[in-house]
Design a protein that fits this description.
single chain; mainly alpha; 8 helices; transmembrane
Length: about 240
Amino acid sequence: MLEAGFWGLVGGAALIVGALAGLLVRVPFKVIGLVMAFGVGVLFSAVAFELTAEAYDRAGADAVVIGLFAGAVVFFLGDAVIDRYGGHRRKDPAGPQEDASGAALLLGALLDGIPESAAIGMSLIGGGGIGIPFVAAVFLSNVPEGVSATVGMKKKHSTAYILGMWVAVAVASGLAAMAGYAILGGAGDTAHAVVQSFAAGAILTMLTDTMVPEATKHADKTAGLVTALGFTCAFLLSMA
């Protein structure tokens, strides 16, 4: 369980790396969009090959379909609540909505990151090693997320607040990975597959709702090419 927490913390720490880059370096919006597009492609690949395909092998189509749609619906509803308090543009480097509260931004970051971290913890169940391709995918996608959100937030919030928020999210990521391992450690294949697919559905909905719009907004049509590049790199890593 401690190992799961460590790897979840590693994935979450990428947000702090991105936040520091956003605070210390003047990054053009187009570069942020391109890097975010690469992260989108990486996570799409990880969802397909590290989560959904593995869940299907464990328990078949029924468990996968139930988990995917349950995860998508839960994320959609949670995101809708956060949007009402100004969290809709939480990953936009141009800045969040004017009425965005600090709590909405924090809860949005937690909602985005917890499914990924729980999936990291689940990858250790059964005595296998950590799913390095998935951890790498989470890390690579979290860096541009941290950069983008930080560049936008620093117009309204202090450096101390921003760094404190990302540290809290990184710690929560470690705890979510531990929870994913602890809760499913003794569960059967069907339960494991449903929860694994649940995480996949939540991540897919998060990508479409929060990352893809920002990537295409700031990188224009080039975002599609870079997304394909990210997908290809992550696919080759998962097949190695």
